[in-house]
Amino acid sequence: MQIYTAPLRDMRFVLHELFADQPFGPLALSDDFTPDLYDAILEEAARMAQEVLLPLNASGDLEGCTYENGVVRTPKGFPEAYARFREGGWAALSSDPRWGGQGLPETVNKLVEEMTCSANLSFGLYPGLTHGATTAIEGHGSDALKQAYLPKMVSGEWAGTMCLTESHCGTDLGLLRTRAVPQADGSYAVTGSKIFISSGDHDLTDNIVHLVLARLPDAPAGVKGISLFLVPKFLPKDDGSPGARNGVAVAGIEHKMGLKASATCQMNFDGATGWLVGEPNRGLAAMFTMMNTERVSVGVQGLGVGEIAYQSAVAYARDRLQGRALTGPARPDLPADPIIVHPDVRRMLMTMRVYAEGCRALGQWTSQALDAEKHGTDPEGRARATDFVALMTPVVKALFTDLASEAANLAVQTYGGHGYIREHGVEQFVRDARICQIYEGTNGVQALDLLGRKMPANMGRALRPFFHSVSGLLEELTGTTDKVLSIHATALHQAFGALQLTTGMLAQKGLKDPDEIGAAATDYLRMLGLVGIGYCFLKAERIAQDRLAEGTEDEAFYRAKLATSGFFFDRILPQATTGFLVIKSGKRSTMALPADAF
């Protein structure tokens, strides 16, 4: 059985306590945005997730989307759930009030996203992609396009998509063939086919706005000749309502491993009317505005799946009776002990717990930077936030989703054979989580972006806010009298030192041989991400110790935080230190076998 209760206490902790120091400076937000308001929003979002979305997760997976006579339909209950989601204003939480949004900070919005994706990841993709599309239009579209489309998209009345991939063209967008021909009225006729288009068509909204990459007739070859076009499913009338059907058609839906309630479509554009977004031949810059937004959101998707996998595994481990504790019967009144008493089961549960709480904290740190970019009042703080977001975007996307797949597999392992069959619902987590490591740029591509682009750019400037934060915390804890805190600070110091040493080593190796970067990238990303999570846990530990020393009614929560942090420092963080040894070996063994010998 799929078990989920929104982890509101931990969400309040990362929102109100962990980064109360505002690491990127003060924000210019409405005076109405108070901690009490944020808590009320989270509580309402939790009810929406638990009562409306969660009951549709397993049934939506079983039924899936259907395609018949050119029409795509979502599973039973999805249109009604989406209507409630939209009417509740959940689609517009962090959007600009100019377009009907509520202007709430991303620190709150990302927690709501997490709850949505925990309860029903397939459902979460529909509003999530629309939010990304509005970001691209707002950043690069003309005033006319913004006025015509953003209010409807922000409200959730209309949906949005991102149309990049073609059958021959995935990561290498330079191979793209879709064409756009200028028309006399200033529009463009877009012709071509796209595949793997999430939310490409469905029955949730009155209109769907596609952002399509295509080439102009005189475009340069490769990625420098790609432009971005806005192509609606229905052409709006003068009053803004959907009008004539555009030349956009669904050729079919993909039959996927997971996310079966999310309509992934093959799309045909046959002279479809579209409008240029941004400048000609600068489409990738505009599209990456959306993609970078989506990459952080995909990381949150992974966190969401990891959380529900953890909770479902805990529920089963408490109820499943098998064997006796190694130290003697824990429940002699029962025919056997619950499997939660066994150390190896505890190892799996604690690993999942650490992944969820660690990613939630690191995600909140990143959200703090996103808010500072948008609402910060300190120019220097905004600059640091921009660098931090650039650094952490590939880390959040790749690390969170890698850990989500690990957590989903651990949940199945906790259930044993019962996890492998459909009836309990945990095998769905494995299938759903897997795509998160692939779409919006595979995790290997994210690692190359981090190590090959972000690290060397501007003499490593993007690394500085991260490195300065970690070193600053370690300096603050120098000489601490708390024994456990001191041990964990030493562990983070060692891992951080290994990361710094690795960074310098790769900067030198990469200048001589780019394959050294390629061979090290995935290990380096995990290494940096674990140090970031370690920073968050060490901050959390210090806060927990202070609260317990002061006296608190929430003693159980803070003691659990200390125990979770202890497991991270004992069992997970050492992977960062050993990462140095792996990376130090270089590309030699990775590239030793000739391609034709495989």
Would you write up a description of this structure?
This protein is of the alpha+beta class and 598 residues long. It has a domain at 445-589. It has 19 helices and 11 strands. It has helices at residues 8-18, 35-53, 57-63, 78-87, 106-119, 121-140, 143-155, 283-319, 343-375, 379-415, 417-420, 426-434, 443-454, 464-476, 483-512, 514-550, 555-572, 574-584, 588-591; strands at residues 66-68, 71-73, 158-163, 179-182, 188-198, 207-214, 227-232, 234-236, 242-245, 248-253, 264-277. Strands 3, 4, 5, 6, 7, 10 and 11 form a 7-stranded mixed beta sheet that branches. Strands 1-2 form a two-stranded antiparallel sheet. The chain has a two-stranded antiparallel sheet with strand order 8-9. The chain is globular and about 80 Å long. The model has no long low-confidence stretch (mean pLDDT 96).
Sheet/helix structural class: alpha+beta
Low-confidence stretches: none
The helix count comes to 19
- Provide the helix percentage: 55-70%
User: How many beta-strand elements?
Assistant: 11
End-to-end distance: 42 Å
Features:
598 residues; alpha+beta; 7-stranded mixed sheet; two-stranded antiparallel sheet; 19 helices; 11 strands; globular
